[in-house]
Design goal:
By secondary structure, this protein is of the alpha+beta class. It folds into 2 domains: 88 residues, Rossmann fold; 50 residues, no CATH class. The chain is built from 5 helices and 4 strands, in the order ββαββαααα. The protein has a 4-stranded antiparallel beta sheet, covered by helices on one side. It is globular.
């Protein structure tokens, strides 16, 4: 069984939002009861419609904000209520790739190289195997083999997503 790097248990994030000058506040439940486990060498994709809490979850996992409820552990250590110094040390180990298709892809790299990059970092695969895996992923999302050697600007917004 793989080593669990990030463990979220029933994370929630609520905000107090003013309703007006004399009308008080209301609780906005931006994130409610989210749990997941991420093991070494794996990738977690968080997808959903606009406003469903993806970015709020990212802010919790990267410790930009602290959850209202629940627990977040990184490498087995509970960082939910950790001191600022300890949170900063863990922040260096977490990376989020946001959904903006124009800002997320390096315009100087071909798509094949972009797709292979996490495989270089996280697997011992040789170049041939990495290329094969990248092409398999492209096929799964409807991109043709010739797209492997294209630059991001050569794709439509939907293809970039």
């Amino acid at each position: 069984m793989s080593e669990v790097l990030v463990q979220a248990d029933r994370l929630a994030r609520h905000y107090q939002v003013r309703r007006g000058l004399l009308r008080g506040t209301v609780t906005l439940r931006a994130l409610e009861d989210v749990s997941f486990s991420l093991s070494r060498g794996r990738t977690l994709a968080v997808v959903g419609e606009s406003g469903c809490g993806k970015s709020t979850l990212a802010r919790q996992v990267t410790m930009i904000e602290t959850p209202t409820a629940g627990r977040l552990s990184i490498e087995g250590r509970d960082v939910t209520r950790a001191a600022r110094r300890e949170r900063r040390a863990f922040q260096r180990k977490v990376q989020i790739v946001f959904q903006d298709p124009y800002g997320s892809l390096n315009p100087r790299k071909k798509v094949g190289a972009i797709l292979e990059e996490p495989l270089v970092i996280n697997t011992g695969d040789d170049r041939r195997r990495r290329r094969e895996k990248a092409r398999e992923m492209m096929d799964r999302v409807g991109l043709r083999p010739e797209h492997y050697d294209r630059y991001p600007h050569m794709f439509s917004g939907g293809q970039r997503q």
